[in-house]
Design a protein that fits this description.
Blueprint (H helix, E strand, L loop, with lengths): L1 E10 L2 E11 L4 E6 L5 H9 L6 E6 L2 E2 L5 H7 L1 E4 L11 H8 L6 H14 L1 H5 L10 H13 L5 E5 L7 H16 L3 E6 L2 H7 L2 E6 L2 E7 H5 L2 H7 L4
Parallel strand pairs: 3-8, 3-9, 6-7, 7-8
Antiparallel strand pairs: 1-2, 1-4, 4-5, 9-10
Length: 235
């Protein structure tokens, strides 16, 4: 579904992505494991159209996205849940969800999807008329994921969804991510929490200084010595 080929991105004289190549097959969860500064933000910006690569390709469903602005990529079927949630704090939960469906006109389908996300995250239904800024961090993350689902994406991009969450809320969120996948969603998950990421992923990549240094089946990466030392604290 998503194919990144030899992506080269520069910020002035800084070489941010150095020939990055990643595949996200249809129907799978692919995890990109990396520390801050390794290139994950640039990778996501390149996919969504917020930075222009110097060379390389971003292909989605076989189509080159090079000339498409960000809003057109959403219409093609991309949706991203950004780091830090970025919900509209002065809007209600319901209004935030409707913002996710801004490019849709099928009212019946929108109502169905509202019920779907309420069934995934019942707490959002309980807080339907509550302003998003008054929600807990975990509830805001649930809202951010649900808002993205309201666009009916073909590919869901998750940028560090576990960031700042307590262990119980993190576990609950990842159970829901697994459920979304089981319902047929293709997902690219960017994380620093190796155990959480590779626990739901089919395949994974480890990114360091703008390039892939390791890749393989997620279950194999969890037992890899480099991953265990760098991300799991195993000596």
């Amino acid at each position: 579904m998503l194919s990144i080929k030899d992506l080269q991105v520069y910020y002035g004289g800084v070489h941010a992505l150095k020939g990055l190549s990643i595949e996200v097959p249809d129907g799978q969860v692919v995890a990109l494991l990396c520390a801050n500064g390794a290139g994950k933000t640039t990778t996501l910006k390149a996919i969504c159209g917020f930075v222009q690569p110097r060379s390389g390709q971003v292909l989605f469903a076989g189509n080159d996205l090079a000339d498409l602005p960000p809003h057109s990529r959403v219409q093609q079927g991309l949706a991203m849940v950004p780091e830090g949630r970025r919900v509209f704090i002065n809007l209600t939960v319901y209004e935030n969800l409707l913002m996710g469906a801004y490019n849709r006109s099928d009212q019946g389908g929108i109502e169905q999807d509202l019920e779907r996300v309420y069934s995934l995250f019942p707490r959002l239904k309980e807080r339907n008329e509550q302003r998003a800024g008054t929600l807990s961090g975990g509830e805001q993350q649930m809202l951010a994921v649900s808002r993205a689902l309201m666009s009916r994406p073909k590919l869901l991009l998750l940028d560090e969804p576990s960031l700042g969450l307590a262990p119980a809320l993190r576990a609950e969120l990842f159970r829901r991510i697994a459920q979304i996948h089981e319902e047929g969603m293709t997902i690219m998950l960017v994380e620093q929490n190796a155990r959480a990421a590779f626990g739901v992923a089919d395949y994974g990549y480890v990114l360091e200084i703008g390039q892939v240094v390791l890749q393989g089946a997620a279950c194999d990466l969890l037992s890899n010595d480099m991953v265990r030392k760098a991300y799991l604290g195993v000596t």
